[in-house]
Specification:
Blueprint (H helix, E strand, L loop, with lengths): L19 H4 L3 E4 L3 H10 L9 E5 L11 E6 L2 E6 L2 H14 L8 E6 L5 E5 L2 E6 L3 E3 L10 E2 L2 E2 L3 H13 L3 E3 L7 H4 L6 H11 L5 E5 L4 H4 L11 H17 L5 E4 L16 H12 L5 E5 L19 H6 L10 E6 L14 H4 L4 E7 L15 H8 L9 H4 L2 E5 L15 H12 L5 H13 L5 H8 L2 H8 L37 E2 L19 H6 L9 H4 L2 E2 L10 H23 L8 H33 L11
Parallel strand pairs: 1-2, 2-4, 6-11, 6-17, 11-12, 12-13, 13-14, 14-15, 15-16, 16-17
Antiparallel strand pairs: 3-4, 3-5, 7-8, 9-10, 18-19
The structure holds alpha-D-glucopyranuronic acid.
Organism: Phytohabitans maris
Protein name: Alpha-glucuronidase
Keywords: Hydrolase
């Protein structure tokens, strides 16, 4: 696999050293099929007798399913049993993760099954460079690994990516941006060969390829006069187009659709609802076992900021909850974890609990659009752990309500894959959480450290940098769940009023007396009413609402006292001073890694930490100054505010 494309590319969590424990042992591999061959190729030489590691497909899928495996160690032999080849691949990479520990002592039988049937990464890669968004929308790791200059890249990089993803348990990817422009739309038809080529290199890693499609494709590509989902000609066009896709790619995953959202076409344009829209695609895919992922990110992005009755947070529920039960079985509603847009802190989207008769997938953002754009170190594992474990209904948490976990990838053609080398940990953690949402985020971080940086680096320093980095980022950016306050457009760095008088629906309503969005039923937009109990009551109540979400749900005076005992204004000052200070500490801690990691990686991390320190100070000063000028309330501790 090692070609020029991969020269100098960091091995991420699969460096040769990660295979040391296996390479030192006699390994037997039993089974047939492409994925078993992949395992064989990973192992190198295999033996028939006296193996210390036995990897075996039993031939009966049974309770292990297609992807599960069992692991045990008895009498000096470590055994992985899988019901099917995919399970063997995941079992093999589990042994890689364990390293020497897989070959010590006895191990009782452990059964490993994925919690989510589909564990998918979405790429927002454009085929042709978009004049505003570039090659990768919200990409902070260089160009696309799929396309360069409008043409398909050498796929060695994609193959290496597939291998990395398989080692985390990811089993599906969408290769192109949800905003499907003209060139990308053609991936469905005359450029289908490019999709087939990608599917070909990812197949040995158990990863299926999905495609974002434009809802208006029947018009754009088919020359039809309409894309109305109830039109017979449109239905026939999707059916025939999809049949051709499966002719070229028999294990094609399906379509992803962003419709009636931020300018994309959709069923509303034809007076139809979103179940009508999703079902026409679902019907075209059903004969081949494909699925359509239909995004719930639908809201009015041409809102009048003067209009206080429209609330963007309400939009997805208002559009989709009434449609529960109307979607086909192979349609999956893809819901962002929060009601707005991947903010550092948001409440959980009430849509996740509102559609018991619909397949729901939860969407996360590994790419750090709103969490520092891979210039800031921000380990998102703790956030995702909170999201997935959140008890949204009395008997189920978010992970239990979701059928699938999906995230926007943070990968590009950067030599460290993710721009910031430490952002690799986020990509790694996504796959691990999708497999098992109950994993401890800090143990996942340890796995990544062991594999990617080796077991001998200063682990304590890395934990001190990363464990709380999400909360640190939160502390120096928009306060108490109010969100945004970023520069419009690129979304990097502070601009408190940047979105305040725009049509985007992301406001904080700060005035001389207070700040926050009143989303209560009593006096506000009524958004709290979209939650099941107890959350509809907890969020409605000024007394019970958790501090970290206070300004998402309530407009309060600056003197309002939080559960923490601090006033809102003093909390803003204190967290912003502390957060910026913390980044200085993070940069200092990294010094301890000097000489323990590659010089290139070291240099890259230093450069990023310097920028994080600069940027956090900018955030601190703009936010503190803004609120000091609005409120006139001085900092109790007399620190410098401008
Ligand atoms: C965000 C992001 C867009 C993206 C959109 C989406 O708004 O800024 O670039 O297209 O999410 O999820 O569709």
């Amino acid at each position: 696999m090692s070609t020029d494309e991969l020269a100098g590319v960091h091995p991420a969590w699969l460096p040769p050293a990660a295979f040391r424990a296996i390479a030192a042992r006699r390994v037997a591999v039993h089974g047939t099929g492409t994925l078993v061959d992949t395992v064989r190729a990973e192992v190198g030489a295999t033996v028939d007798e006296d193996a210390e590691l036995v990897l075996r497909v039993t031939g009966e899928v049974g309770a292990l399913g297609e992807e599960g495996f069992e692991l045990y160690r008895r009498d000096g032999v470590t055994v992985v049993l899988a019901g099917a080849p995919a399970g063997l691949l995941y079992g093999f990479f589990h042994v890689v993760r364990l390293g020497e520990a897989a070959f010590t002592g006895e191990r009782p039988v452990e059964r490993h099954l994925p919690a989510m049937r589909r564990r998918m990464l979405d790429h927002w890669d454009n085929v042709a460079v978009n004049p505003v968004m570039g090659q990768v929308e919200r990409g902070y790791s260089g160009g696309s690994i799929f396309w360069r200059d409008g043409a398909q890249c050498d796929l060695a990089r994609v193959r290496a990516y597939g291998r990395l993803l398989a080692a985390t348990g990811v089993n599906a990817i969408t290769i192109n941006n949800v905003n499907v422009q003209a060139a990308a739309a053609r991936l469905l038809t005359d450029r289908l060969g490019e999709v087939a080529a990608v599917a070909g290199v990812l197949r040995p890693y158990g990863i299926r390829v999905h495609l974002s499609v434009n809802f208006a494709a029947p018009v754009m590509l088919g020359g039809l006069p309409t894309a109305d989902p109830l039109d017979e000609g449109v239905r026939a066009w999707w059916a025939e187009t999809t049949r051709r896709v499966y002719e070229a790619i028999p294990d094609f995953g399906g379509y992803v659709v962003k419709a009636d959202s931020e300018g994309q076409p959709g069923p509303f344009g034809y007076g139809r609802d979103h179940a009508d829209g999703a079902n026409v695609l679902a019907d075209a895919l059903a004969p081949f076992g494909g699925v359509v992922h239909w995004r719930a990110f639908v809201y009015n992005h041409r809102q009048d900021w003067r209009d206080r009755s429209t609330d963007r947070a309400r939009a997805a529920y208002d559009h989709f909850a009434p449609l529960d039960g109307k979607f086909r079985d192979n349609a999956i509603l893809q819901v962002k974890y929060g009601p707005i847009d991947f903010q550092t802190r948001e409440p959980i989207s009430p849509v996740i609990a509102a559609m018991p008769a619909t397949n729901v997938a939860v969407e996360l953002q590994v790419t750090q659009e709103y969490t520092g754009q891979q210039r800031h170190a921000c380990y998102l594992g703790p956030m995702w752990s909170e999201v997935l474990g959140f008890p949204l209904t009395p008997d189920r948490d978010v992970a239990g309500l979701a059928k699938e976990l999906i995230a926007v990838s943070n990968v590009g053609d950067d030599r460290f894959w993710t721009g910031h080398p430490l952002a690799q940990a986020n990509l790694y953690a996504f796959g691990r959480f999708a497999w098992d949402p109950s994993l401890d985020p800090l143990s996942i971080l340890d796995e990544w450290i062991d594999l990617a940086l080796g077991p001998d680096v200063d682990r304590a320093a890395l934990h001190a940098i990363l464990d709380d980095s999400w909360r640190t980022y939160e502390s120096y950016t928009a306060p108490l769940g109010v969100g945004f306050m970023v520069r419009p457009g690129h979304h990097y760095g502070p601009d408190v009023d940047g979105y305040e008088y725009t049509p985007w629906g992301t406001y904080h309503f700060a005035d001389r007396d207070g700040v926050g969005v009143d989303r209560t039923r009593a006096t506000g937009t009524g958004f709290t009413g979209q939650y099941p109990r107890p959350w509809s009551d907890v969020y409605e109540s000024l007394e019970r609402c958790p501090d970290e979400l206070l300004l998402f749900f309530h407009h309060v005076p600056y003197g309002h006292v939080l559960h923490s005992g601090s006033t809102v204004i003093q909390h803003i000052y204190d967290t912003h001073f502390a957060g910026a200070e913390r980044t200085v500490e993070m940069r200092r801690l990294w010094e301890r890694l000097a000489g323990q990691v590659d010089a290139d990686l070291d240099a890259r991390v230093r450069e990023r930490l310097d920028e994080q320190v600069r940027s956090a100070a900018e955030w601190r000063d703009q936010i503190n100054t803004y609120f000091y000028r609005k409120s006139g309330v001085p900092d109790e501790k007399g620190r410098t505010i401008y």
